[in-house]
Automatic annotation (TrEMBL):
Signal peptide (residue range): none
Keyword Cytoplasm: no
InterPro entries the record matches: Carboh/pur_kinase_PfkB_CS (IPR002173), PfkB_dom (IPR011611), Ribokinase-like (IPR029056)
Protein's UniProt name: Sugar or nucleoside kinase, ribokinase family
Keywords: Kinase, Transferase
Source organism superkingdom: Bacteria
Length: 289
């Protein structure tokens, strides 16, 4: 079992204001005119997603994310449910245009790219029950200063390739690691290598195929995806991560934690937003669906 302590979960990483464009299929690389099936604005970013789902699960959470004094940041704050946000200084808040196909494929265009963000001091994380380090240049700098065990670190490597110097500081600092199988046709060798390196639980999400994991004893686990009426796939990986995290922090065993992750993933899949309780950030209105 992974040891835990009191305090909030501190989620460090990106948030963004996104314009979502749904198309029947992603466009070919040629000059053309397209008509969108649907278009909407919403909060995004992998760390915002995790914070939303941890909040949904009743886990005390603080989202530590770069937000400037601009409209995009105001929209993000207005969209989030009652999640505690600690804004980190930056020149401009991220904005993406995401092209989404009916099959759930995505092309993200950064219209405002991530700006420089100061690395928060490790001492400011000392009260955390756990720390989530999501991928960003500034969180990588923080990861480089940590040794595994300095803090209870969880990380999400997303579409990490089997060999990646850029991602390595994150898993070197972490006790729990999640990734996706986008660049890992057979994820088990990579997951076993993470455990050999000292990771206590290594997880790989596989979309509609569910997830697999390797625990500290090198036992392999498999989890089917939960069936649901899929509206949009954005945020499902962050929801799965949060479901597993909440279960592990509650003392549940790996099979039960993976099942909890699969259940929570459906909370993202059945909405066109990253999770439940997202409001119309332009008006501060009621939660959307």
């Amino acid at each position: 079992m992974i040891a835990t302590r009191e305090g909030p979960v501190r989620v460090l990483g990106p948030s963004a204001w996104n314009t979502m464009v749904r198309l029947g299929q992603l466009p070919e690389p040629r000059t053309q005119m397209l008509v969108a099936d649907e278009c909407w604005d919403t909060v995004g970013g992998t760390s915002a997603g995790k914070a939303v789902h941890l909040h949904d699960l009743g886990v005390p959470v603080v989202l530590m994310t770069p937000l400037a004094d601009d409209d995009a940041a105001a929209h993000i704050r207005g969209s989030l449910p009652d999640v505690a946000v600690e804004a980190l200084p930056t020149a401009a808040t991220e904005h993406h245009i995401n092209l989404m196909s009916a099959a759930g494929k995505r092309v993200s265009v950064y219209t405002v790219a991530p700006a420089t963000t100061p690395v928060p001091p490790v001492a400011g994380l000392a009260d955390a029950r756990a720390v989530v380090l999501d991928l960003a240049p500034w969180t990588r700098e923080l990861a480089l200063t940590l040794r595994r065990g300095d803090l209870p670190v969880w990380t999400d490597l997303h579409d990490v390739p089997p060999e990646s110097d850029w991602h390595e500081p994150f898993w070197r600092a972490a006790t729990v690691v999640q990734c996706s199988d986008d660049n890992l046709p057979d994820p088990f060798p990579f997951l076993h290598r993470l455990v050999d390196d000292g990771v206590s639980l290594a997880i790989c999400t596989r979309g509609a195929a569910g997830a697999v994991a390797v625990d500290a004893g090198h036992q392999e686990h498999r989890q089917d995806a939960e069936e649901c009426a899929v509206v949009d796939t954005n945020g499902a990986g962050d929801a799965f991560f949060s479901g597993v995290m909440a279960a592990v922090l509650a003392g549940e065993a790996t099979p039960d934690a993976l099942a909890a992750g699969a259940r929570q993933a459906t909370r993202a899949l059945v909405t066109r937003h990253i999770g439940p309780g997202i409001r119309d950030g332009r008006t501060g209105g009621v939660p959307t669906t």
